[in-house]
Design goal:
single chain, about 325 residues, alpha/beta, Nitrilase/N-carbamoyl-D-aminoacid amidohydrolase, 6-stranded mixed beta sheet
């Protein structure tokens, strides 16, 4: 019998144009066919063409997520880039995954926490993802391995420096940019983000929030209402028992998976509030977990459907 690894399959899929394009996740509702890729024909029309269009709406149900569990060095971009590429090299040799998630601000080491670093200093630790050699290398790795990457860094733009998660798709294309919204204390050295979007993928719609964004329930709820079944959460700060309670609650009240990725902890909570993964082993530089997104009802869950929007009113 002919066998085919996930990576081999995705190389074929990549040749057919699978990535963050409209040929993948055309609707906000998942038909729930586990592990199913479907390809639209490049030509033809009529009823057959409509059927193939419908097939492309099917998405992967099970995905393997690699969470990077390494502490970066403060302010040392080249060192941290080397650390990341070493871990990505290990993943390439040993595992086949669908998504890689780094901790918050991994590239510059989340240097904003340092009292000696001012708001004006932040630009020295920020990169332009369109010209950065570091992001180019990560993009190449994503393309070569047909893997999504959620990559934490400080990003410079015309209107300031942002605490950013760059989103690379399986073709290595920069498919999205998410900037941290909720800024307190040292995070005020960044410019606050301006949007809260979901992103299309071959495994359906997903969201991103960074570190403290999770403490505001509106963040996860807004992404859920847009159809996200999983939220990737690069983080650096608080973790432990209190955070565990928060993450389990956020998952349970929204019926989604949350991938909490901290340098010292790889945590995944499920739609029923259960702990799917909670690894704090200091000897491991990454953790791979498979999740079944068909179990995440998200915007079709009882907690969403049975809301009393007619009574949720405030003057503030």
């Amino acid at each position: 019998m002919l066998t085919q690894t996930r990576r081999e399959f995705l190389k074929i899929a990549g040749a057919a144009g699978i990535g963050a394009s409209a040929a993948l996740a055309e609707t906000k509702k998942d038909n729930g066919s586990p592990g199913c890729f479907a390809f639209a024909k490049q030509n033809g029309g009529g009823k057959e063409n409509e059927q193939t269009k419908a097939q492309t709406r099917k998405t992967i149900s099970r995905i393997r997520v690699a969470q990077i569990k390494v502490y970066p060095d403060k302010g040392k971009i080249e060192t941290n880039h080397t650390k990341l590429m070493e871990v990505l090299g290990d993943i390439e040799r040993k595992d086949e995954v669908d998504v890689v998630v780094t901790p918050e601000g991994f590239l510059e080491g989340y240097v904003a926490t340092e009292k000696s670093v001012t708001k004006d200093d932040m630009v020295k630790y920020a990169i332009d993802p369109q010209t950065s050699k570091e992001t180019s290398a990560v993009s190449d790795w994503a393309r070569r391995n047909k893997t999504w990457i959620i990559y934490g860094c400080a990003r410079k733009a015309a209107d300031g420096v942002f605490n950013t998660a760059l989103i690379y798709d399986r073709r290595g294309t920069l498919a999205g940019i998410y900037d941290k919204l909720h800024l307190q204390k040292h995070d005020r050295k960044y410019t606050p983000g301006k949007h809260l979007h979901v992103y299309e993928s071959d495994f359906g719609l997903f969201g991103v929030m960074i570190c403290a964004d999770r403490r505001w329930p509106e963040t996860a709820r807004t992404l859920t209402l847009q159809g996200a079944r999983v939220i990737f959460n690069p983080t650096y700060g608080m973790h432990g028992d209190l955070n565990l309670c928060i993450m389990r609650t956020r998952s349970y009240e929204n019926g989604i998976f949350i991938i909490f990725t901290h340098p010292g902890q790889s945590l995944i909570t499920g739609p029923d509030g259960a702990i799917v993964c909670n690894n704090q082993d200091k000897s491991q530089t990454y953790i791979v977990t498979e999740i079944d997104l068909s179990k995440a009802l998200a915007d079709m869950s009882d907690h969403i459907i049975d809301r009393r929007k007619d009574l949720y009113k405030t003057t503030k």
